[in-house]
Design a protein that fits this description.
The chain is mainly β. Helices cover 0% and strands 50% of the residues. The strands form two sheets. Strands 2, 4, 5, 6, 9, 10 and 11 form a seven-stranded mixed β-sheet that branches. The chain has a four-stranded antiparallel β-sheet with strand order 1-3-8-7, with no helix packed on it. Strand 5 and strand 6 form a beta hairpin. It starts with a strand and ends with a strand.
């Protein structure tokens, strides 16, 4: 069982920056593909970004491409989401998720954090 704990959310002005962190309990963190999702009020949860277990492949939703960067520090069992040039439409609860490398790119994420709120003011 992998436990994920997000942090770093808060209130930020439009155009500003914020860095989210997700700490994983699993010693074999390096074998998990990690992702960020978000859910805005009244909307379905949506994919934001992911980074493969190898760290060699990253992908982003079109809405955040060029503004957000996902990264991981295997030594710290932590994945990050650097959010730059934030917009009011980035306001949402952001969730960290993990999927073991054996599941494959089309598989579902097995483990989820509790979420952290990001609010972008105009």
């Amino acid at each position: 069982q992998v436990q994920l704990v997000e942090s770093g959310g808060g209130l930020v002005q439009a155009g500003g920056s914020l860095r989210l962190s997700c700490a994983a309990s699993e010693r074999t963190f390096g074998t998990y593909t990690m992702a960020w999702f978000r859910q805005a009020p009244g909307k379905e949860r949506e994919f934001v970004a992911d980074i493969w277990w190898s760290g060699l492949v990253r992908s982003y939703a079109d809405s955040v491409k060029g503004r957000f960067t996902i990264s991981r520090d295997t030594a710290k069992n932590t994945v990050y989401l650097q959010m730059n040039s934030v917009k009011p439409e980035d306001t949402a609860v952001y969730y960290c998720a993990a999927r073991h490398r054996t599941i494959g790119a089309s598989g579902k994420y097995e483990y989820w954090g509790q979420g952290t709120q990001v609010t972008v003011n105009t």
